[in-house]
Design a protein that fits this description.
The complex is a heterotrimer. Chain A is mainly alpha-helical. Chain A is built from 13 helices and no strands. Chain B is about 50% helix and about 15% strand. Classes of the chains: A mainly alpha, B alpha/beta, C mainly alpha.
Chain lengths: ~280, ~450, ~290
């Protein structure tokens, strides 16, 4: 089908607007991070850098443990992702396909997990973690991140399962395959893109979590990127150059990650199951 | 055993075990084994998180640990934004630090949960040896004890550029009427004569209070612990502040210290109130030491001399373990030795001011590159800090409600009712008094 | 029944986990709300319902509640509008659509703390890009203080939070859109329906289930947003952006009234649970009827 020129204008105009809204702030930040300090704060800001320096990045690397924060973030996010997926998949399947008393009530209850402000959970949880020696441990962050990502992941997973044609499953049931086999051998490959989306969702929620990480982690060597980044904000002075370099350094790793797996997130969401 | 694998709790246990065995009479046999065993491990939390400060701190700690094989001090930098939630939680859970940096209101909070150990004897010894500036130890001396050892001082001054004043044909303002005139003259052409914050944040508490002390409203408590905020002097300070705030950039409602400094450094603001702009001015602006001007905060025309707000930062002892307490005292005494102390202060050159008399003369302080370059300015800062006060800590009596008043930024909030909601200064101050009184009651 | 046992086996890891990590602390919060604990770690006594009386009788809770409503509605409107337009555009076929679909999510993968710094810098008057841009475009004459008034601060925060979240919402909607069978549109086209009519009669109704879930979860999530607000305005100016989570944090950690904070938390949770319960029931009802 052919678009009229009006439709085309609307389409590409809209695209351009979205690109500007999303991209321009990032352009400013990334280019700002290589400007000389005076250019960063001058009264008439420059759209394109007039100066070039790597001093902010040098300062960032020299004195803060950014590579370690990065490593911590990746480890915590990977474990959070794995546990989230491992728990979400069977739960979602049970909610979707299996009959058991209280199914609907439980399913609703799970989404209720988001009805509580995170701050509420923070204090008692701190006490609990302290008792079992989990303060200042990446495991504590994994536990919290899984709990935060799990409800939505179950919902996502369930809606992916719903896209699998019933006939495929029924054929397997007729063949006498047990439920676990149906889930692992037949459904999992079918909704692989959907599982990828859930995994990426869990990864990103862990990657961006700040509140819990800021209180549960004590030592510098275990900080994640958001907390480490908050640390360089400084109390009495703000070094915008350093912050912009830090922001850039915090953005780049996920951008690289997304360049590799990003399309899975979208195709998983939009296709759910391989049809 | 790896260093990182050992939490403070484990160190605790080892010390306790060691003492238990000793007491049980295994001394002869076991001491030979434990005397050279693990050193006493101390965890130090401070809120000087910017990388270069952490680095300087580590250099000092390495040196101390090397010179004291029986003690090992480890730092865990925290941030002021988080520590108010984190430290009480950590103490409640039994894994708080052994040494903790503090400011006066934070100490009152931790004292309430019994996390702070008095340091009377150490304070006395160190005072005899180095001579504390009285204004720096006063906010930690109450309820018959000294609750922390002062570490460094900060006081707010007025910053400007000599050349800008000269071009506008004005003198350095000393009184409020001169100040307002100067702010009006320095503004225009996209520039602002002055940059004062109006955020609900500690910085605004500080700048507002630095005007209050200059109109005779330094005390916010009466001797009996009732609130003494609503009085003509306070209203006068707020009234004048809101006039100056109108001459400030429109985004001042979201300012913290950094924005004010950037405004000054980019020459958008003619004058600002700040602890120090030296670092920013030196690295992000002209860096011309001769042009950077600093003076005392101007005073109300009816007052005789200028005062300011000063923040004495200190270090608290927060361990109940006797061996750790002793080790911590050794460390604190070492830190205040003039040869080490100057290097500690210059972890942020041009911001942290000495709290001891011999520290103020220490070569290790004045020989720093930045300090040398901005010597006249730093001398003025030290002079200003002598007349420094802090809200809630002016009468020699300290009331626990100051912790909540300070943490909730009620002084700044009162200002916002004027500049954001358009209330009169008198009404806003009255409401502020009511809110503070409500907190003091609880 | 073997099947039932298996079902419970499937569900229980997730359920027990959530119960331990979220449920148990909530019980603690309820207990706290009946005591008079001040600073964390200090002792408390049982005080009955007096915290509830104080919170419900004071103005602070209700004002924060009203600001929360503004916050949630503002986010819902801005995000839904932006996301819907974005989703509809990304649902078209054009060269590079895959790239656009992937990278639209950029704002969501950045840590909140970084988002905060980005906007604090961009909106500042020293070095910030937005003010000079607005002045050049002739929209304003002098630099604007985005956080200077209660409502402008709220609006700025809503826009910043929406900036971060709308691409995610858009992709969720896109997922819903792609599940609408293409032949429906073909049939409508043959019937002579125009673009708008096709949207009204097919897209909008069939997108409802997705919008419902996004509406419920999105409302809960944005209601509980804390870090963006806290790090940018700390609830100011003059309480203009003091939503309930901010009030809870401030009461607990700045006012040192832990029990009062727990009380506000419990009340907030009851409100949100009521909302979630009603809407999810409506949701499962519509799902069942289909």
């Amino acid at each position: 089908m052919k678009r009229s020129w009006r439709q085309a204008t609307a389409l590409f105009g809209g695209l351009a607007a979205i690109a500007i809204i999303i991209g321009l702030p990032f352009w400013w930040v990334v280019t700002g991070s290589i400007k000389l300090p005076r250019e960063i704060i001058q009264r008439q800001p420059t759209m394109f850098p007039h100066s070039f320096t790597l001093q902010h990045f040098e300062k960032l690397l020299q004195a803060s443990d950014f590579p370690i924060y990065l490593l911590n973030s990746v480890i915590v996010a990977l474990f959070s992702t794995a546990f989230t997926v491992l728990m979400a998949l069977p739960a979602a399947y049970a909610f979707f396909r299996m009959e058991f008393p209280g199914r609907n009530t439980l399913y609703r209850t799970i989404l209720l997990a988001y009805a509580f402000p995170g701050v509420v959970v923070l204090i008692p949880l701190y006490g609990l973690f302290a008792k079992v020696g989990l303060i200042d441990s990446p495991a504590a962050l994994v536990i919290v991140n899984v709990a935060l990502a799990l409800p939505f992941s179950i919902w996502m997973m369930r809606s992916f399962l719903a896209t699998v044609p019933r006939e495929i499953e029924e054929a397997a049931v007729v063949d006498g395959a047990p439920t676990t086999t149906i889930l692992v051998r037949i459904l999992m490959p079918l909704i692989a893109p959907g599982i990828a989306s859930v995994a990426i969702f869990a990864f990103i929620s862990s990657w961006t979590e700040y509140l819990f990480a800021s209180v549960l982690i004590v030592s510098d060597a275990r900080r994640t990127i958001p907390v480490g980044f908050a640390g360089i904000i400084g109390q009495y002075q703000i070094d915008w150059g350093l912050l912009l370099a830090g922001a850039t350094a915090a953005i780049v790793p996920v951008v690289i990650l997304f360049a590799l797996v990003g399309r899975w997130f979208v195709s998983g969401l939009t296709e759910g199951a391989v049809k | 055993m790896s260093k990182t694998g050992k939490g403070p709790g484990k160190g605790d246990k080892i010390v306790k075990l060691t003492r238990l065995f000793t007491a049980a009479g295994f001394a002869a046999l076991l001491l030979s084994g434990t005397a050279y065993a693990d050193p006493v491990k101390l965890t130090l939390w401070h809120m000087e998180q910017p990388p270069h400060r952490v680095q300087r701190m580590q250099e000092l700690l390495d040196e101390f640990n090397k010179g004291h094989p029986d003690i090992e001090v480890r730092q865990e930098p925290q941030s002021w934004g988080e520590v108010y939630a984190k430290a009480p939680a950590a103490f409640a859970a039994g894994n708080g630090p052994d040494l903790l940096f503090t400011i006066p209101d934070f100490t009152t909070v931790l004292k309430k949960i019994d996390a702070v150990v008095p340091v009377d004897d150490l304070a006395k010894d160190l005072d005899a040896k180095h001579g504390f500036v009285p204004a720096t130890i006063a906010p930690y001396k109450y309820d018959d004890h000294v609750w922390a050892i002062p570490a460094y001082n900060m006081a707010i001054s007025l910053w400007y550029r000599n050349s800008a004043l000269k071009n506008a044909g004005i003198e350095v303002p000393k009184t409020w009427s001169e100040w307002q005139a100067a702010a009006e003259k320095l503004g225009g052409d996209g520039r602002y004569g002055i940059g004062l914050p109006a955020n609900k944040q500690l910085y605004t508490d500080q700048t507002v209070y630095s005007l209050m002390v200059n109109s005779g409203a330094a005390d916010i408590y009466k001797d009996d612990g009732s609130i003494d905020f609503d009085k003509p002097e306070t209203v006068k300070a707020y009234d004048f502040y809101s006039k100056l705030a109108k001459l400030s950039p429109a985004d001042n409602a979201s300012w913290t210290w950094g924005e004010a400094e950037a405004c000054f450094a980019s020459n958008t603001c003619g004058m600002i109130l700040q602890f120090s702009v030296i670092n920013t001015y030196d690295t992000q602006a002209e860096g011309d030491a001769a042009d950077l001007g600093v003076a005392a905060v101007p005073h109300d025309d009816g007052q005789k001399e200028s005062a300011t707000i000063s923040y004495s930062n200190a270090i608290m002892l927060t361990t109940k373990d006797k061996a750790k307490q002793d080790a911590a005292k050794v460390f604190l005494a070492w830190l205040l030795e003039p040869a080490n102390y100057g290097r500690f202060l210059t972890m942020e050159p041009g911001l942290f001011l000495p709290v001891t008399n011999d520290g103020a003369k220490a070569d290790s302080f004045w020989s720093d590159k930045v300090v040398t370059k901005y010597k006249p300015q730093i001398e003025t800062m030290i002079a200003n800090s002598q007349n420094g006060k802090l809200f809630g800590f002016t009468t020699g009596k300290v009331f626990p409600s100051i912790g909540a008043i300070s943490a909730q930024n009620l002084i700044a909030e009162t200002l916002q009712h004027i500049v954001v909601d358009g209330q009169s200064a008198a009404d806003a101050v009255k409401a502020g008094q009511a809110k503070m009184a409500d907190i003091a009651k609880k | 029944m073997k099947n039932t046992t298996l079902a419970f086996l499937f569900v229980s890891p997730a359920l027990l986990f959530l119960l331990a990590v979220l449920g148990w602390p909530l019980v603690q919060a309820v207990i706290l709300s009946f005591q008079d604990v001040g600073v964390i770690g200090s002792e408390g006594h049982f005080v009955g319902l007096s915290n509830y009386a104080a919170v419900l009788g004071g103005g602070g809770f209700w004002y924060a509640f009203s600001r929360s409503i503004v916050w949630v509605l503002g986010n819902a409107v801005v995000q839904t509008a932006l996301a819907l337009v974005t989703a509809l555009i990304l649902n078209q076929k054009f060269p590079g659509v895959q790239i656009a679909r992937t990278w639209v999510i950029l704002t969501w993968i950045v840590p909140t703390v970084v988002v905060v710094i980005i906007w604090r810098w961009l909106l500042s008057t020293s070095g910030g890009m937005i003010n000079p841009l607005l002045i050049q475009a002739g929209i304003v004459e002098r630099p604007v203080g985005f956080f200077a008034g209660r409502d402008s601060a709220m609006a700025s925060l809503i826009l910043i939070n929406s900036w971060r979240w709308f691409p995610f919402t858009a992709l969720m909607m896109l997922a819903g859109l792609t599940r609408i069978p293409g032949d429906l549109y073909e049939a409508a086209r043959i019937d002579g329906a125009g673009t708008w009519q096709r949207f009204r009669r097919i897209t909008w109704p069939l997108l409802q289930p997705t919008l419902m879930v996004l509406g419920v979860v999105g409302t809960l999530l944005s209601f509980n947003v804390f870090d963006v607000i806290w790090l940018l305005t700390a609830g100011g100016p003059s309480g203009g952006t003091q939503t309930l989570p901010v009030l809870i944090y401030e009461t607990a950690f700045k006012g040192y009234r832990l029990s009062e904070a727990a009380t506000i938390s419990v009340l907030t949770s009851i409100l949100l649970m009521g909302f979630a319960f009603l809407t999810t029931r409506a949701m499962t009802a519509t799902e069942a009827s289909r």
